[in-house]
Structure formats: C-alpha cells, structure tokens
Design brief:
The structure holds 2 protein chains of 2 kinds. By secondary structure, chain A is an alpha/beta fold. Chain A is 37% helix and 29% strand. The two termini of chain B are 25 Å apart. Classes of the chains: A alpha/beta, B mainly alpha.
C-alpha cells in the first residue's frame, strides 16, 4: 500500500532523513518509533505531501506522491503532530469545511455522523473547538483525517500530551481503525506502538535501525529483564544475597523510600526467570519483599540493543567487541 | 478552492478582524469624504480618493495580515497543503476572500455620494473612473499584503511589512520630483502606484494602468505560491 524507497531529506548539510526504505502492506498497522528529532515527522510529512523529499520515491497504492499529488493525497488521511484545527470554528463547521476541502462525494450528513460516532465526538459537534479539551481536540483531528474514507491513515504522535485514560481511548480507536485501514502511527514511546502495531519500524538519526514484527521486537527487547524490587532489610547484606542468586547479572540499590526498606534494580540473565529464587532467597533470611515489578526498557536501551543486534547480524565476530566498547 | 474561500470569508466575521476592517475603513473614508467635499463645499471628489488611497495603507494590511501568517503559526496550513487542492487554488481563494471583504466595504462607502448628489452636480464619470481605480489599487494592495503574510508567521510583522511596502509604493511619486536624473525619475514613475492613478481621476479610462495593476497583482500572487513551493523544498 505504501512504498518508501531510498528517501532522503536534507536541510543544508544535515540529513533529517537519510536513505529510508520500507513498505506498509494493505491493512497493516505500522508503528514508527524513534526519539524526538529522529526524522519521524519529516518522513510522514513527505509521505502526505506537506514536504518534498531531496531524493527517493514515495508511492501510495502505486501512485507517486510527487508525480500525482492530488490522486495520492486523496488516498491519505493525515493527523499532523499538532492537530490542524481552526479554533474559532465549531466542530461541525470544521468537519464540514474539511468535507468540502477534500471534495468528498459521500452522503454528507451520514458520513459526518459516522465519523463523529467512530471518534466519539458526537456530543461536542456544536461546540467551539477552542473550548474543547486536549483529548477532544485530538479526536476532532482524527475525525478530520477520516473524512472521505481514505484507505491510508497517517497519525503523527496521536497520543502525545494526553492523559492515560485518553491514551487508552485513542489506542483503541487506532486499533479499530486498523481493521479496515492501513495505518502508520509514529511515537517516541515504545509501549505505545507495541500496544497497537503489527509491525514496528525503528528510526534513529534519520536511519532505520530495525523493521520487525512486533512479537519479534518484543523478544529482542525482553531478552534480559530488569526488575525493580523493594526489600525490607539491611542494604549491604541484601545486596550480597541478591548477587548470589543464580541468574542475577547485576543488582544495585536505588534508594530508600521507607524506613529500613530499599529499592533495588536487579537485572537477570537472558531467558532466566529469577523471581522464584529471589523470593526463596529472601524469605530464608526473613527479608520481606514489599514490591516487585518488571521495568520496561527505556527507548535508549532499546536503541542500544537494536543497534547491537544490527551489528551482530552484519559482523558476528565483532559483536562482542562492540558490546565491550560500549 | 471554494471551501477555502467560504471559510476565509466566514472567519472574517467570526473573528473581530472583519468588523474592525469595515469599521476603520468606513470611519476613515467617511471622515475623509466629509472633510474633502462637504466641508470644503465642493463636489470634486478627486481629493477624497487621493486621501482614501493613503487610508488603504493602514486598512488593507488589517485584511491580509492573518491570511497565511496565522495558518502557519497554528499549523492549520498542514490540512490545506495535504488536501487535494493546488497551491494556486489556496492562494487565489484567500485573495478572493479578502477582495470580497474589500469590495463589499468599498460599495458600502459609495453611499456617501448620494447626499452629495442632492446638493450639487456630481461629475459621475470622474466618480466611476476613480472607483474603478480604487478597486484596482485595493486589489493590488491585497495581493502585496497576502505575499508579505506568506513570508512570516507573525501577523504583526506581516501588517507592518505590508504597511512599509505600500507606503513606499505610494510615496515614490512624491520623492520623484526631488530627483534630477531623468532615468531614475522615469523608472520610479513607472513603479509608482500613485502616478498611474491620475488619469482615472479625470474620468479617463487608462487601459495601460489597468494592465499595470492587474500584472502587479498577479506577480505578487504568483510569488506567494512560490513562497510555499520553496518552503516545501527547503
């Protein structure tokens, strides 16, 4: 459905996007993951025709966005990073404007009603956009992208700045839309894309460093786990005991939160579940566990891992050296 | 394109800007009209139209300052630029919307001639000629204003920049007489919006001037399109 080939975008001597190629198949939800400034928005802006590329091609359903911008733009619904809302309009007026702007031919009343129902904004249709909360604005932005029923949806950081409840709502909405649309969504938060995407493309400094099915990426990321454990007991002895547990690679004390109890970060070896031995080792000595949780990897950790894995694939011999040098 | 036109006209009335424009335009023109004709007990309107041109320097930027600057600041331009509409269509729609506001207000100000005609003999050829010239000049000024607005994301900068350029274009004719060089003088005279206008005030339909105004207008609209084109590429 979407084919991006050798896409380059240069600003002066700086490469915002440096030779990116990937495909998105029909009906897929693809997560576009990367830290701020990695080139996510630039790529999506080129895909939607807002920016031009320095070189490379982008095709949507076989149509080149540079050669036939009108045909390509009709196939794409776009939610930019900042929803493009005219705040002095009412929701209904705004959606009507978008309907006319896209020269939509579907039944107007019915289509707008459907879009509002899908995005759950039916109850605010008569309100001024400037009076809406951030969550509602985001949903009006999504509604705008759905008008005309384009087969491809592009969402640039759809959940940024929303509260956890709204994030879950938007996530569900994206998942539902994925049933009959091809969706690309970008994010700088790993769990965000893990939750909805079938496939994840990871980008850093303008280059793709991983393009994997979500399950595969999860495997890479979760190979060695980090636990945050709160233990009641004398710090030095607890640390000594922890490092003796088979499978523990590293244990650090992080801080004292309550009297006598400390939080420790414990990293386990690949594929070893240390939770049971941890429990028994501590209970033997009479140090209760007050809390235990798995800590997700930060995006930086993921990048380091992925880049390692990448180097591993290319030069198996050097991988160890690369890791040691880190 | 029609959708954008409609939204633009609509937005002039949902924000104070449209009302402010009309109020300032009508107040200024009304004041200038009564001063130059009723007060001086004459039906000669050429003075009024000359003053009006100076009023344009202030009121036209009110109309054009937000056209593109505001869209750029609030990022709403993204929805226009990623919709199946051409850049030329977007610029034309905005231009026509501002022109609609301007023409409506100019027509309203024509009411002033009614009381004048009750008390004296009005030279209608001169009035019509001047009105057409005013329309053309307004159109040119709007195109310049839209171009300046496309360069910045700050409405205030856009307004000030437009005022500066318009002032320069009008004043050039007055500086002209101070210059000795014939070549410089004729070039400045050619550029001057003001000197082209003179024939209309005598009721002469100057085709060359019309071509001039329409061309300047087209050039600035074209440049606005290029500004967007350039921003996409760099």
């Amino acid at each position: 459905m979407i084919e991006i080939e050798h896409l380059v975008k240069r600003y002066g001597s700086k490469f915002a996007v440096d030779d990116i190629s990937f495909r998105v198949n029909r009906g897929e939800i693809v997560g576009f993951l990367g830290p701020n400034g990695a080139g996510k928005s630039t790529t999506l802006n080129i895909l939607t025709g807002y920016l031009s590329s320095t070189s490379g091609t982008v095709r949507v359903s076989g149509i080149d966005v540079l050669d036939s911008p009108y045909e390509a733009k009709r196939l794409i619904g776009f939610l930019p990073e900042q929803p493009p809302l005219y705040v002095d309009m009412k929701v209904d007026e705004y959606l009507g404007f978008i309907y006319e702007l896209k020269r939509c031919t579907l039944n107007r009343e019915k289509h707008l009603k459907e879009v509002c129902e899908v995005t759950k904004i039916s109850d605010v249709r008569g309100r001024m956009i400037k009076n809406l909360s951030k969550g509602y604005r985001q949903r009006v932005g999504i509604a705008q992208s759905l008008i005309g029923n384009p087969p491809v949806l592009v969402f640039d950081e759809p959940t940024v700045g929303l509260d956890p409840k709204q994030i879950i709502e938007i996530r569900n909405l994206v998942r539902n839309l994925g049933a009959d649309h091809t969706v690309i969504l970008s994010s700088h938060i790993l769990p965000e894309v893990q939750a909805v995407a079938d496939r994840i493309v990871v980008i850093n400094q303008g280059r793709i460093i991983a393009d994997e099915k979500t399950e595969n990426l999860n495997r890479v990321v979760e190979e060695d786990r980090l636990y945050s454990v709160k233990i009641c007991g004398p710090q030095r002895e607890v640390l000594a005991a922890l490092s003796k547990i088979p499978g523990v690679v590293r244990a650090d004390a992080v801080g004292e939160r309550e009297l006598d109890s400390f939080t420790y970060h414990i990293q386990s070896e690949q594929g070893v579940d240390i939770r049971k031995p941890l429990f028994f080792a501590l209970s033997e000595r009479g140090w209760p566990i007050l809390g235990l949780e798995a800590v997700g990897m930060s995006l930086e950790d993921v990048f380091i891992k992925l880049m390692d894995a990448d180097a591993n694939k290319k030069r198996p011999g050097d991988a160890k050296a690369a890791r040691a040098g880190r | 394109m029609f959708a954008i036109y409609k939204r633009e006209v609509y937005s002039y009335f949902t924000t104070p800007i449209g009302y402010v424009f009309m109020a300032v335009f009508l107040a200024a023109s009304g004041f200038l009209f009564s001063l130059s004709t009723l007060q001086s007990q004459t039906t000669d309107v050429s003075g009024y139209f000359q003053f009006l041109m100076f009023a344009y320097i202030i009121v036209i930027p009110l109309l054009t300052m937000k056209t593109f600057a505001e869209e750029r600041r609030t990022r709403t331009e993204q929805v226009l630029l990623t919709a199946p509409v051409s850049l030329t269509g977007i610029v034309l729609a905005k231009f026509l919307a501002a022109l609609t506001m301007f023409v409506t207000t100019l027509l309203l100000s024509c009411l002033y001639f009614y009381p004048l005609s009750l008390y004296g003999e009005v030279n209608w050829a001169r009035v019509w000629g001047s009105l057409i010239a005013m329309l053309l000049i307004g159109m040119t000024f709007i195109a310049i204003g839209i171009f300046v607005s496309s360069l910045t994301e700050n409405q205030f900068t856009a307004a000030l920049g437009t005022i500066g350029i318009l002032l320069a274009l009008v004043i050039v004719a007055m500086v002209n007489s101070l210059i000795d060089s014939y070549v410089v003088r004729s070039v400045l005279n050619w550029i001057s919006i003001y000197s082209r206008y003179a024939n209309f005030t005598y009721g002469i339909f100057d085709f060359g001037a019309i071509v001039y105004y329409v061309s300047v207008c087209a050039v600035f609209l074209f440049l606005s399109v290029r500004v967007f084109e350039k921003r996409r590429w760099s």
